[in-house]
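tool_call: predict_structure(chain=1)
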Amino acid sequence: MLRRLLQSAARDRARRLNGRGIGEWQRGDLPAAERTLRAALKKGGQAGTAANLGMVLAAQGRPDEALVLLRRAVELDPGHAGARINLAALLHQGGAVTEAVQHLREALRIDPGNSTARANLLKPLMDLCDWPGVEAEVRRLRDEAEAAGGQAGSEAWADAILPFESLLLPFTPSFQLRVARRHAARYAAAVEPLPRPAAAAGSTGGRLRIGYLSADFHDHATAHLAAGLFAAHDRTRVEVVAYCIDAPQAVSYGGGEAYRRRIVQGCDRFVDATASSSRDLARRIAADGIHVLVDMKGYTGGSRPEVPAMRPAPLQVSFLGYPGTMGAELMDYLIADRVVIAPGTEDCYSEALAFMPGSYQVNDRQAVAEAPGRAACGLPEQGFVFCCFNQLYKIDASVFAAWMRILAAVPGSVLWLLAGQAVAQERLRAAAAAAGVDPGRLVFAPYAAKAAHLARHAHADLFLDTLAVNAHTTASDALWAGVPVLTSPGRTFASRVGASLLTALELPEGVASDLDDYERSAIALADGGPRLADLGARLAANRATHSLFDTAAYARALEGAFARMWSEHCQGRRPTSFQV
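tool_result:
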């Protein structure tokens, strides 16, 4: 009897510790969460505790330790849906996408109504180019959203899709806003706002103190675009502070150290906040007297939306890393342009819109090295080379079918794609064969460091954009390397970036009106006539003279935007949209 009582007391203690650890994890205090959850395991915590501890270790950049604990959790209780979901998240992050999908589907078999499993399933299906699976999920979400309508309290369906994934699929801007609002409300409810900051520009000699918050200060697409921005800022107008929440292993991967050094050197102060809890980080931002906090992550991987949810700065701005709305009072402004925001969709953004004079996207000039030979790139010695170096998850059935019709109409041409999951590549080859195109005409390029990747663009003739979600950094890479881009804008921010870049370069021929026009334009540009050469020549000229690749000019415009925001704030006015 005594033994049973002691065991029961230990289990109760373990449950309480597990609950406390979850709370510390949600608040961003990872070291405390780890200590508490380890204590819970010692007191008899089972699968759920092991799974929670695994995720806390993963968040601290210790994926190997985390994977051991998550596998242990599933072994302890194979019917624990939450443990399988956490394991799937880490497997997906580590590239074991097929196994991740297996665990998520098993979690849904165990608990068919589990919205977290549903929310985590979409991106792995996209990574694997499992188009029927993606379509089934999209159809279900649309049906549930339509059934719920837009009435208060009817948005529970939105828990089954993550905000970032909603940007990657053919949903409307209003649908994306509904999803973002649901998730933003959850972040806001989970934190306690800080006392409203009252930073004054006079404390910095009249300069605005700008705080950039990101987990991408390493070899990442965002750093590829923005690495030169920080040093380009005019120090008579602004002081630049970077708040870094990178995972520790990210900086040592690839060329991460070089990007990190350059960003650190470009800032007045660089704060490594990786190990800080979210609340401590928010307090630090407030104590530093930041006037404008610039969030460069949104709802993407490694983000901490709970930090802006605490409102540590008088003004908060969403910039560059998230092509959509945050859906709440988290952000006062969104850096945009007149192209990425489709006419008539302005009300689908919770933020006031700061329209940049060219593209919203900053770019960084980098030297382009001499290219290796075509054979070294896996390309045939002859033939037109269409390329799309987007990650494979951006490819959907409709655009791939269009690509196959384009290949069929241009004999000897090939389609040069970025390598991805082996299963996805095989599915694409099978889809090509089903369309009557030799699968050998698909050439997959392995990952390459930025300099080598830019160099190999010399062998590409035309970049074919994906349409539901465009090329962003990859389109800028192609244009900077001299490769014309062909796109067709939709109605969402993420589907209009290609058009934004081409408009900023005054290359309207690259912007097709619809999918049929896109096909016709691709075929016409590949016919050997002067159209492509003329387009390439104008691209080469405009790269040097237009604002898209002028980092210093972009920095001046962005500073002007910040100054306008701050002036409106100091006059007690609510954020409203404006043209820079």
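agent: The first strand starts at residue 208 and ends at 214. Proceeding to next step.
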